[in-house]
């Protein structure tokens, strides 16, 4: 674990010192449960009463709360966006406690002689890199990854162990793909014929921009004719499904178990909640926010928050309400009849 | 990319020529955005106005639209089912642009001496094939696949990299399994006892028919006593979960993130939408179609389309309606009381 | 297949003999469809009429049904909890038909010299065990597993092929992890800034207790600052997502495709149905049972069964009811107005 003074942290990460420069910080933690060696942050003024009671050795704080801090005493880093500062602090911390090893190509990796590896590429044990693939400088390919023919990995991208990047698929720079990710499996396309399904070969690929992160066991299918596209800065959580020919706009984020069906177009800066489903061929405008477990069944042209979840309840209450729901349209008709009478 | 005349395509794939035989085709694409080197198709007469405006060099068309075509001019392939023709065209195209390499057994693969490999089997780097497994002629086992003891892969089946086929499990001929698929993990079976769970060992296996396709990271559990079964021609998308002892009838298709709980029996020719869930021990008749995200809580004896999704809305509207829904049964009682009075 | 007399089974597994000791048992199966070589069980007295018609050679039965058994004749094992006895019988059976091979470290495995392997550890082909990892006595690491730096596997735990156990993550004794499981991918944490996302490095790990089973392709993310925790005896089915800093209480079970968002705290002895979603930062008391596909949007302090699923219906009926649902709040107002008039 690092040991660092507040003054040294500020030298590394910026921010303005308020109070003592010399507390020694050994961990990052929440205000609640902090001790004198903990650095915490307060991003939401609603939680400001937690500050007074916290034993944290240093608190990252917005300048607007300076008076509160001065009343409490101790050591602070003032910065306009404490949560962003915290994020950068975690990055600095990770670099201290988990420094990346020097890049090496493990001798058990199977690399086609026509694959091109940039400078300082790291290839883990038993990774497979096929013909014509190109791996950008500083990229790290984890153990047991399979990089298909002619696939491209941008500079500085990291693939955790056990990622499949299919042939002809491309990911940009500084991406992070977690274990079990599958990029470029076939989209789900079949023509029905005489009671069975005739396969539509998926002739497109997947194109992924820079700074994209994809969670464990998520799947991005290749396009049928054109490519499936994730733009720069997209963040996907675990077990997310992206169908063929989907376009996901820049800096859109999707939580775990979300699914987007084929040819849907999701705008920029959207958020899709966990377990939500977007049906195929729909368009979502920029800035659309879909609540967890909501099923989007038509296009959304206006930014905003959209929801559609059955409210859960004790089972007996749910049963009664759900049963009545199956007669809801009839109830409306009965209400209408009464209104006419009245 | 292939360059081929319309006449040559017809020689390879059939269909009747209407108009010019000599346009050179270099890509397959939609009517919209096509150019003179594009072959497109029109399957749904509803979209026939797209035809007039399209610059496609050749269009696959049903004979019923011949007059429309003659009015527009250009080159056509007439065929009773344009979408099916398109599917076969993609297959022909894929064979041109991605010919399968000559089969080889990669020296890094670990193959038990008691495993039997048929003629022309391809085994990718670092695949593992365990004792007593049998791989049919022409099958292709991708890099990092694990074929368990006594497992059977039928002739001409293809396993993408990183597929697990568990011991004693069998897949038929011409199947396609995508990366991350797990066939034959234990079904989820436990006996509750004194506040904890006692494992029920899963003594069955998985039997999969011919021409089955299974999407990336999907899971088919082994049965508890008997086998879990997917019949011929079943198509599963990505991240689909099939519980132990489920039976899926021939030519049934399930979209991404669908889940079928243990011992459910799904008929032939069904479709299960993305994210839909079928509870355990239910029976669905042949020809049942379940909409996306629908939860099937009782057996369905009659073919047809079934749905059950909360309609999404702007968050504020949803909140009001959802809150009221929790009193729906009481509202019905109030309505009834009013009706009695009236 | 084993061949064993009822008397020998009782010698191995306990229980009281009723009737003949000498039927030879060759398979375990349901009452329905059993033959003279089948051992079956009857756990639920509701199904007792199946007993009379069954040809099973031996039936595991509660003593309360002794009279029924005596009337039918044949051979029985009497035991207070037939389902538990059945579970133990499957375990005994599996040990006969699938004995574990002698432990060996496959020569193709890549094991860092600083990793510590206990006595009788089995390591499959091409597994990777990184620096400082510790594998307890009798543990079995499947083919293609990746055990990260400093990760710990408890005694007697089994990892099926293709499991990722991330650096610093720990699993207890006698755990069973199925293929494709990913333990210790990054939790989904980002600070929004100027229209993009700044990564919050996930500095915690994952701690898993004893006797935990995790289904195929399930994901347990590492914590942001502290650890994600699964207590002893937790059972997770396939394709389950556990977000960062979640705590799952001992002996809680979750069915396939369930998802738990970050920092949720689930009590002991809970059950979470298939496809259910628990939102982040919620608390569920001990003994809470969530029905399949239910979305838990607020904390639950009281044990019991909770549900929230839109009842499915024929599509046309659903459409009418769903459309009306979007006006439900307005309907309530109309009802209220009528009530005032009346």
Automatic annotation (TrEMBL), chains A, B, C:
Pathway: Bacterial outer membrane biogenesis; LPS lipid A biosynthesis. One of its GO terms (biological process) is lipid A biosynthetic process. This is UDP-3-O-acylglucosamine N-acyltransferase. InterPro entries: Hexapep, Hexapep_transf_CS, LpxD, Trimer_LpxA-like_sf, UDP_GlcNAc_AcTrfase_non-rep. It catalyses: a UDP-3-O-[(3R)-3-hydroxyacyl]-alpha-D-glucosamine + a (3R)-hydroxyacyl-[ACP] = a UDP-2-N,3-O-bis[(3R)-3-hydroxyacyl]-alpha-D-glucosamine + holo-[ACP] + H(+). Pfam families: Hexapep, Hexapep_2, LpxD. It is an enzyme of class 2 (transferase). Signal peptide: none annotated. PANTHER family: UDP-3-O-ACYLGLUCOSAMINE N-ACYLTRANSFERASE, UDP-3-O-ACYLGLUCOSAMINE N-ACYLTRANSFERASE 1, MITOCHONDRIAL-RELATED. Catalyzes the N-acylation of UDP-3-O-acylglucosamine using 3-hydroxyacyl-ACP as the acyl donor. Is involved in the biosynthesis of lipid A, a phosphorylated glycolipid that anchors the lipopolysaccharide to the outer membrane of the cell. The active site is at residue 244. Homotrimer. It comes from Roseateles asaccharophilus. Residues 22-92 form the UDP-3-O-[3-hydroxymyristoyl] glucosamine N-acyltransferase non-repeat region domain. Gene3D superfamilies: Hexapeptide repeat proteins, MurE/MurF, N-terminal domain. GO terms for molecular function: N-acyltransferase activity; UDP-3-O-[(3R)-3-hydroxyacyl]-glucosamine N-acyltransferase activity. The gene is lpxD. Coiled coil: none annotated. Belongs to the transferase hexapeptide repeat family. LpxD subfamily. GO terms for cellular component: membrane. Its EC number is 2.3.1.191. The keyword Nuclease does not apply. Keywords: Acyltransferase, Lipid A biosynthesis, Lipid biosynthesis, Lipid metabolism, Repeat, Transferase.
